[in-house]
Give the backbone structure.
Amino acid sequence: DIYDQVSTSIEKLGLHCECQGGGRINHNSAEKKITVYGYSMTPSLH
């Protein structure tokens, strides 16, 4: 996970960080586009 890779470096700068939940990142290098959006595994209850 990216959070595990960068959180120590962020905290060494004196900043606080925490992971708020899951999400998805879609990287399209051909279009030079990155889309970041939320994602939940919780089933919907109606």
User: Anything to note?
Assistant: The helical segments are 2-12. The chain has a mean pLDDT of 83.
